[in-house]
Amino acid sequence: MNKSDLIKKVSKELDMPLPDVTQVINCFFQEMSESLKKEDLYLKDFGSFKKVIRKARIAYNPSSREPIQVPEKEVIKFKPSINILRMKNLK
Q: The pTM is what?
């Protein structure tokens, strides 16, 4: 499912106009992004998004086998809640 599929599904489920649902979904993702710049994000019964530092490492170019220094960087990790894991395992 992608963002447009989500918007269509929510619009149909709630019987709301597509532009209104689009605005709500875009606002939700914007607020998530802004929040993650400052702190970790926890959504009850869904999961948590945490910022972690990926250490610097040496990688290799697959075609030339030449070593490349990859610098450390900040990434976002998602950990699903127990409820999401249970739902996934039921299907």
A: 0.73
